Amino acid sequence: MEWTVTEQTEAAGCRFEVSAGFAGEDVLICLQGGDRPHLGCVVQTEPRKSLTGDGSVSATSSVLNFPGHKDEAICRWLSEKIAASLDRRVICTGGFHKDGITKKEIIEVQEAVQRIAEILCKKMHKKS
């Protein structure tokens, strides 16, 4: 598998990177950043029809976290956004760590993930 898209930005004063690629019909995403990039969780996401009944696509996820890691919040959001947008199964893994991170910096990281997700969706739609 080749990485199809890699996007970098800064969040909470740290480098932040997300790489994504197609593994056959599915998508693999690796999110990393902060002082010590790592693998804090694995999110497995399946696209499905939205429960709203409006015909839109949503997603359901299963998550494995390493003890004490909070990476699920950003990896799960990213995985579900990409799965619903591309209507494909997604595995997202990774982690972001910054010692002493503040609530404001956590919001910065979440906003960076949202911006990167929009860019990835657009670029991967073109390649699919």
- How much helix is in the residues? 25-40%
Q: What fold name stands as the CATH topology?
A: Ribosomal Protein S5, domain 2
* CATH C-level name: Alpha Beta
How large is the radius of gyration?
14 Å
Uncertain parts: none
Q: For the largest beta sheet, what order do the strands appear in spatially?
A: 1-2-3-6-4-5
What is the general shape?
globular
Termini Cα gap: 14 Å
Alpha plus pi helix count: 2
**Range of strand content:** 35-45%
Structural class: alpha+beta
Mean pLDDT: 93
Our count of domains comes out at 1
CATH second-level architecture: 2-Layer Sandwich
User: Topology as H/E string?
Assistant: EEEEEHEH
Total number of beta strands: 6
Would you give an account of this structure?
The chain has 128 residues and is of the alpha+beta class. The protein has one domain (5-127): Ribosomal Protein S5, domain 2, CATH 3.30.230. It has two helices and six strands; from the N terminus they run E-E-E-E-E-H-E-H. It has helices at 72-86, 103-127; strands at 5-11, 14-23, 26-34, 41-49, 57-65, 90-97. A six-stranded mixed beta sheet has the order 1-2-3-6-4-5, covered by helices on one side. Helix 1 packs parallel to helix 2. The radius of gyration is 14 Å and the shape is globular. It starts with a strand and ends with a helix.
Main features:
128 residues; alpha+beta; Ribosomal Protein S5, domain 2; six-stranded mixed β-sheet; 31% helix; LpdD_chaperone-like
